[in-house]
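YM 10:42: Benzoate 4-monooxygenase cytochrome P450 sequence, as discussed on the call
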Amino acid sequence: MGAFHGLLGLSGGQLAGVIAIAIFTLCIYRRYLSPISHVPGPFVASFTRLWHIHRILKGDQNLELIRLHDKHGHLVRIAPNEISLSHPSAIKKILSAPLHKGPWYKVIAFPDGRFQSPMGATDPAIKNELSRHLSAAYTLPNLLRSEDGIDATLSRLFTWFDRFSTQKKAIELADWFTFATSDVIGEVIFSKPMGFLEAGKDIDNTIANSHAQAAYVSIAGFFRWVHVALLSNRFVTWLGIAPWGHLINTAMSAIKERMDRPDVERVDALGHWLRMLESTRSFDGKLGSGKARMEEHEVRSAAFGAIAAGNETVAAGLQAFVYYMIRCPGAWERARKEVDEVLGGEGGEGGPGGVVSYASAQKMVYLQACIKEALRIFGPASMGLPRVVGKGGMTFDEYTIPEGVIVSVNIWVMHHSKEIWGEDAREFNPDRWFRPNAASLEKYFIPWGAGYSSCPGPNIAKIELSKICATLVRDYEFDQVDPKQEWSWKAYFTAVPGGWPVYVKKRGHH
Ligand code: HEM
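YM 10:58: structure's back
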C-alpha cells in the first residue's frame, strides 16, 4: 500500500482526499448529470444501490415501491442505473419483449458460478435454449400423470389436519403448507416426497433457515463476485461444503440413484429430462448455436430450480388464499357451496379425506376466482424483475430511457395499481373476476411474471392450489387464535408470510 502511495507521490491524507473527491464527483454526476437524473425517486437511490438493498433487507421493498409510484407516477428511479415502472404498457414493452435480463440474475447458478442456469442466463436466446427441454416436463398432461402420487402426499397433510382438529391444537399454516408443497415438488420431480409430512416437522431446520437464505440471494446478485469468491466457486463445489441443505441434498441423491438405475422408467419430470439427456448425449451443439442439447449438470440445475423456486411460492399462495378468504365475509361458505355442488354433496370424490381432483376443481369457477385473487393481492414474487433497455431506448410518458438502463417491473406494483384495477385495487375481491372488464384485465395479472423469462411452474402451482384449496374448503374451517392479528412477512425475492397461528376445524366437528 505504502509503495502504491509512493508511486502516486501522495501522502495517506492526500490519497484519502483524492478518493473522497472522486466519490463526491461520481455522486454529483449520478444525481444531476446522468441521462436518467430527471426521473424522480428517493434522493439516496440516485447515487447508490444501497437504498434498494436497504429496502430489500428491511423486507418491505414491494410496499415501498407502491408508495413511491403513488407519489411520483409511472417512473421511479430506485438505483443509479435502474428505473421501476408502473405504466400499464410496461408488462408488454419490458417483460414480454426479448430484452436482456438485468445482471442480478447471473447469481442464480448451480452448483456454482461456472454453470449457466436458465434463470441466470441474461441473454434471451441462451435462456430459451437452456429452458427448451425443461419446460416440456411441466406441461399439464405430463404433470397430471403424477396426480395419484400428489394425492397420496396431500392425504398426509389432511391426516395431520384431522389430528389437529381433534386435539384443538393451534398451528402455523406457513409450516404445514411448506411441508406439503416441498413434498409435492419431490413427488413431481423425482417421485419421492421430501419427507416433511411423514416426519411432521421441519427436517434439519430447512424451512426455518430458508428466510435467511432468501435474504442472502436477493442481495447477492448485486455483489456477484463476492458471492462467487465465497461460495459459488469450483473449490467449494469440489469440497462439497456448499450449504445446500436437506432439499437440494435429497434431490441430488435421488438424481444419482436414478442415473445409476437407467432401467427404472418413471413419468416424473426427472424421467423426462433423463430421456432428453439420453437422446442428446451424442449431440455436440454449442450454447448459443440454437441447436438442442442437454447436459447432465442441466438436469441437476433443473431440479435445483424447481426445488428452490417451487415450494415457498406455492405455500405463500395457499396461505394468502386462507388468510384473505377468512377475512372476506361469506367467501368460505360461498366457495363451499360451489365445491359441494360440483362434487355432488358433502364428501364427494372418495368421501371425506379424499383429495379433490384437478379436473373437478377446474369446474369451480368461484373457487378459481378466489385463488386468482389471492395471487393478485399477495403475489408470492415480491422483487422487481429487471431487464436492460436495448438499442434505440424506450419511451414512457415524457421520458426517454436510454439504452443500457435497467428497467424493472414489480409484480406488486402492477397488481396494486388503481389505474389498472380500479379504486378497490388493494382489496381482496374475487368478484372482480366476474365483472365485464375481467377478460381485458388478464394481461395485467402476472403472478408468474411474463414473457420469455416467466415462471416455468404455473401448472404445478395451479394443480396444487386447485386441489388443496378445494379440499380445504370442502372439509375444513380455520379460526385465527387472535382474529385481529395480521400476518407478517419479509419481501425478499419472494414474500413468505407467517406469524398467524390458526385452529383447524374439521367440517362438522365443534
Ligand atoms: C404460486 C406459485 C409461483 C409463483 C407466484 C411463481 C412466480 C415466479 C416468478 C415471478 C418468477 C420469475 C420470473 C422472472 O424472473 O421474470 C419465477 C421463476 C421461476 N419459477 Fe416460479 N412461481 C411459482 C411456482 C413455481 C413452481 C411450482 C415451480 C416449480 C417448477 C417454479 C419454478 C420456477 C423456476 C425454475 C424459475 C426460474 C425460471 C427461469 O428463469 O428459468 N415456480 N417464478
